[in-house]
Amino acid sequence: MESLREKFDALRDMRLSRTLSRTRLIMGGFLIIILIGACLLMLPFATKSGEHTTFLGALFTATSSTCVTGLIVYDTWSHWTVFGQLVLLVLIQIGGLGFITIGTFAMMLLGKKIGLAGRELIHESLNTLQLRGSVHLVRRIVCGTLIFEGTGAVLLSIRFVPQMGIAKGIYYGIFHSVSAFCNAGFDLMGYQEPYSSFCAYASDPLVNIVLCALILIGGIGFIVWEDLLVNRWHWKKYSLQTKIVLTATAVLTVGGTILFLISERSNLFAGMSAGERFWRALFSAVTPRTAGFNTVDTAALTNGSKILTMCLMFIGGSPGSTAGGAKTTTIVVILLHIRAYLLHNQDLTVFGRRLAPDAVKRACVVVFINYFLALGAILILLIGQDLPLADVLFEAFSAIGTVGMSTGVTRELNTLSRIVIMILMFLGRVGSLSFAMSFTEKKRPGKIRYPEAEIIVG
């Protein structure tokens, strides 16, 4: 019996070691892509001025685009040439889908067989529930992405072509469709006014609907796509993951819209028609999850709206999606745990299912790691520069959630502060928990357990 247990422990440790190795590989891959992107952006013909961009500026932009964040130190339209913009677009697409997904699909097109190691890498990269069907899921992800981004590009081109001409209108449609679907937040609307984002289209139903739909579709997660495709409109057949994600997304979208309508009724929305207020409130509720576009002046929001935005940025999208943040399922698990504790229930139940105890531990760790990373970054930013507290808070939560919304303080950051924000963006994309676990090893449980003791909590 003892020998069997030792073999089991050894097998478990081996699997954990392989998981950690895959995590390091994924992180290393993202770092390489960021560095390549930074080098390309430093080329003189990547900028409209013809001068090379500083390494730190190029690295910040490459990190922001690869980590699909959207924080910028240069206006995308006025600083970068078409070449530079295309580099950003490629980085956004790679960052949104993941280089493992794109690489796997390329191997499939070449007729290469995906072995077990490759399937495990896909499983780790997409954060799927099971190893089986990973290759099939990659095919559906890429095809689905092309369909959604293509449809979004066509619909946006309907609005842009009459205003900008055929070539520029189509290009703008493609760029912003990819940026919205990947929850990146990069835009080319600086030709109207630098850093203006989509403020000029704040009351445009077509642009608002298309961008919001792309953001939400990209943010619900690839696993949910698969479930919806297989089970269509049959709610009872959906997996627990899908039910939680769809419910949380609906609550955050509707609830956020209502709260923004209330918070800004006497501020930014004062004197507007009901339709104008609705489109601005809806967009303000969707874009922090984690796209980074804006149709209102973020810096002019009330304090209540800024707090609401930070909460939405911290939550982010859903697991296995193009979005960042702590994730909707993480927050739901913690809320269920609080409810169960207050009601003296031993189990966490939702939609007729009982959650595994490990889900609570993982959710708590994710939330607290993200929170303390943001808190640490805030302290460094405040110590390094004399900046408004509200702006620093907003910037840190935007970076760790890979959102990209900003009150404008990004351009004022010094070298140390920019490095801190880059680290937050990177950790927000690869996953703070995965990053932390990649440097630790799980020890075998000891044969001797210490006596249990109680402490006073709360």
Account of the 3D structure:
This protein has 458 residues and is mainly alpha-helical. 64% of the residues lie in helices and 1% in strands. The protein is built from 18 helices and 2 strands. The protein has a two-stranded antiparallel ribbon. It is globular, with a radius of gyration of 22 Å. The two termini are 43 Å apart.
What gross morphology would you assign? globular
Low-confidence spans? 4-17
**How would you classify the helix and strand content by structural class?**
mainly alpha
If you average the pLDDT, what whole number results? 87
How much helix is in the residues? 55-70%
Trace the largest sheet across and list its strands: 1-2
- H/I helix tally: 18
Question: What's the order of the H and E elements?
Answer: HHHHHHHHHHHHHHEEHHHH
The number of distinct β-strands equals: 2
Provide the descriptors you would attach to this structure in a database record.
458 residues; mainly alpha; 2 strands; globular
Layout of SSEs?
Layout: H1 2-41, H2 55-66, H3 76-79, H4 82-97, H5 99-109, H6 116-126, H7 134-164, H8 166-181, H9 205-220, H10 222-231, H11 240-263, H12 274-286, H13 303-315, H14 328-342, E1 349-350, E2 353-354, H15 357-384, H16 389-400, H17 415-430, H18 432-437
Antiparallel strand pairs: 1-2
Helix pairs in contact: 1-2, 1-4, 1-6, 2-4, 2-17, 4-8, 5-7, 7-8, 7-9, 8-9, 9-12, 11-12, 11-13, 13-16, 14-15, 15-16, 15-17, 16-17
